[in-house]
Amino acid sequence: MGSRMDVLLGAQWGDEGKGKVVDVMAPDYDVIARFQGGPNAGHTLIFEGKKHVLHTIPSGVFREGTVNLVGNGVVIDPVIFLKEVNALKAVGVDVRDNLLLSRRAHLILPTHRALDAASEAEKGSSKIGSTLKGIGPTYMDKTGRNGMRVGDLELPDRMDRFRSLTEKHERLLGMYDRAGATKEAEEEWLAAVDVLRSMRTVDSEHYLDQALRDGKRVLAEGAQGTLLDIDFGTYPFVTSSNTICAGACTGLGVAPNRIAKVVGIFKAYCTRVGSGPFPTELHDADGEHIRQVGREFGSTTGRPRRCGWLDLPALHYAVMINGITELAMMKADVLSGMDHLQVCIGYTINGEFTERMPYDITGPIEPVLKTVEGWNELRADDPLPGGLERYIELIESYVKVPITLVSLGPDRAETVLRQATMAN
Ligand code: GDP
Ligand code: IMO
Ligand code: MG
User: Fold this and answer.
1) Which residues are catalytic, by number?
2) What is the pTM of this model?
């Protein structure tokens, strides 16, 4: 008969708390599989008083007995990967036991990073605000059919392939007056590749097919979030991969009819790091309060995150695009103690009210905000306060999907599983 795969993904602009929820859910799964993105991601896990940030390696890596798979849709920087492996080793986790890499995953070269930086500098004030990890150029080489894959590292001509792609990049970098800038990084990269080559690689599509046939429970872990999706995000201020549920099919080689639950992760408010439109952004004391209390500074770059009220039309859009069957609401504790909150229930565009996410939110768009009561005194072992319950019910009635997990703090333990008050 076999089993089906669940998918967990971000329903906003990334950094929703995916890493925490994967870690909480991992004991219910045999395999955790990352399906897209690369080291632009920073997934934070906190337990037993320690914080861990993962970039490439799936967030099930701390759970014994869980296999962690880096899928074909992921792009891997061997240097960052090696740093992650070493950081895990330092806390007693040997990834050689439970980590598998897809042979079809593409590699980020030092010149990809240089091209990312050159392209952003060229854009000037209209820059994307990229994490500068080489993500865009690497996916460009993938779709341009020039890329280098993990499986290529097994081939005798791997160095020729590396040289030929690097030379091509050097010619492009010459156009930006940046040729020859990556010589030192190259040595570090080649040394890291040797470690990567010693890792266990698989054909992830066959591996997952067999795992599901054997009745294994598989959870696909997304990176970034729906509004950063290359097709459905706030283009061009997006990342270069499909962050949505469909990305789990292409990024792992699992057919759509094998997907069961789709868990969408969202914050009780909104954040965005990098440039691009953000209708509910706050530029006032409330925004600063949320940033400070929520420690809204990037896990990968340390940049301050832009903060704003929860945007329900955008969340509803994420539910639609992904087929989200249940939601996890994060960081309710951050809003605790505020008398009143606001929540966006629609937009006014050219004088017209709409609840629909438009083609372009860079234009003149006014969020229509509803004021709701706040809450106080949150404890994971107590019932949720009335104000928070009513906030949850408002969201559920708007997006028509149950909120089955509420997170009240960064630690694994600060999590409340909630009986759905509505059917999905
Ligand atoms: P991810 O990229 O989606 O995995 O999210 P990040 O790890 O980049 O950002 C989420 C941040 O919020 C991290 O610093 C987490 O430790 C923290 N966090 C997660 N859940 C909660 C929560 O419920 N409350 C608070 N205060 N912090 C949380
Ligand atoms: P996780 O998985 C938040 C943003 C960048 C920039 C845009 C493009 O931790 O949620 P890129 O480096 O991909 O070319 O950057 O996307 N971005 C993220 N924002 N969380 C992330 O990942 C992000 N990964 C990329 O800030 O605006
Ligand atoms: Mg993050």
Assistant:
1) 15, 43
2) 0.97
